[in-house]
Write a structure and sequence with these properties.
The chain is an all-alpha fold. Helices cover 88% and strands 0% of the residues. The longest helix has 31 residues. It is elongated.
Length: 51
């Protein structure tokens, strides 16, 4: 039972981080007009360091 609750919390946390990254990417693409290379660099940095 405890493991199931912990697993559910982890899934919620992961979804929150993904949503935050999507918002950051949308802002960077829309407002700053970044090219696709800069966007992929942000994704990689986010995955590596949790930025």
């Amino acid at each position: 039972m405890y493991c199931l609750r912990l697993r559910r919390l982890v899934l919620i946390f992961v979804k929150m981080k993904q949503k935050r990254l999507k918002v950051q990417l949308k802002l960077l693409i829309d407002e700053k007009g970044l090219d696709i290379d800069a966007v992929f660099e942000l994704i990689i940095r986010h995955a590596e360091y949790g930025a």
